[in-house]
UniProtKB/TrEMBL annotation:
Organism of origin: Aeromicrobium duanguangcaii
A molecular function GO annotation: ATP binding
Name of the protein in its database record: ABC transporter ATP-binding protein
Pfam family, one: ABC_tran
Keyword terms of this UniProt record: ATP-binding, Nucleotide-binding, Transport
SMART domains, alphabetized: AAA
Domain ABC transporter: 16-257
CDD domains cross-referenced by the UniProt entry: ABC_Mj1267_LivG_branched (cd03219)
Keyword Nucleotide-binding: yes
Domain of life: Bacteria
Length: 257
């Protein structure tokens, strides 16, 4: 697992840097002067109370939401105004709090659709799948032990299996950074342990960095090398899991006694 990096202390070029991020919805300030950083090869947990701005920050980082102030850089390029679909081609993908799969397509077809091509229309994606893409999909299905479900309609999967399919879809294009929103939500305890193992394996084998928004504290504390805590749209704390566990402000605002 990557060595923990405390915000502001890193000397390497960050994979992702967000500085001074502000986001408003009408008169509500969802994010206020947020600084956020992901080093190459890090697994960063993003936690906080309900309404603290976690999913909003993820949407801003992935460019699904525009920011009202601040800058975002990915792979040393300014992406503050870059469209979300372009980011997938540049190496940043994400999953969603509410699982997004095509229920009328098979597991393998869903994974093939996740491949990002320039100049290929959505209705051409399956027909355009090249052998290398098929091999990539089959490799990921095998890695996540979903090969036996390759021909199953996605609508027939359990909630946990759909989460795994979303993870496969996010990884088909060989991204450098994957943003996971509530990865363990709706997943049974046995499958949660498998999901943790798959994330660790992909992190180790392919060097994928992850940002994981999560309410399951045990899940995120066992995976992340660094944890960022949001509260009221601001960064309350940023440090190693051990630092966060013993941070009195975090205990008072989020973890409890």
């Amino acid at each position: 697992m990557a060595t923990p990096v405390i915000q502001g202390s890193g000397t390497t070029t960050a994979l992702l840097t967000a500085t001074g991020i502000e986001k408003r919805f009408g008169g509500v300030r969802a994010l206020q002067d947020v600084d956020f950083r992901v080093e190459p090869g890090e697994i960063v947990g993003l936690v906080g109370p309900n309404g603290s701005g976690k999913s909003t920050l993820l949407a801003c980082l992935s460019r699904a939401h525009d920011v009202d102030a601040g800058t975002i850089r990915f792979d040393d390029r300014d992406i503050t105004r870059t469209r979300a679909k372009v980011m997938a081609r540049r190496g940043m993908t994400r999953t969603f709090q509410n699982v997004k799969v095509f229920p009328e397509l098979t597991v393998r077809e869903n994974a093939l659709l996740a491949r990002q091509w320039d100049g290929v229309k959505p209705w051409q994606l399956l027909a355009a799948a090249d052998p290398a893409t098929g091999e990539r999909v089959d490799h990921l299905l095998e890695l996540t032990e979903m090969t036996r479900l390759a021909g199953e309609f996605a609508g027939n999967l359990s909630g946990g299996q759909k989460r795994l399919l979303e993870l496969v879809m996010a990884l088909v294009s060989k991204p450098r950074l994957v943003l996971l929103d509530e990865a363990s939500s709706g997943v049974n305890p046995t499958l949660i342990e498998s999901l943790k193992g798959y994330i660790r394996l992909l992190h180790e084998q392919e060097g994928v960095s992850f940002v994981i928004v999560e309410h399951n504290i045990g899940f995120i504390f066992s995976l992340a090398s660094r944890i960022v805590v949001l509260d009221g749209g601001r960064v309350l704390a940023d440090g190693s899991p051990d630092d966060i566990r013993h941070n009195q402000e975090v205990i008072d605002a989020y973890l409890g006694a």
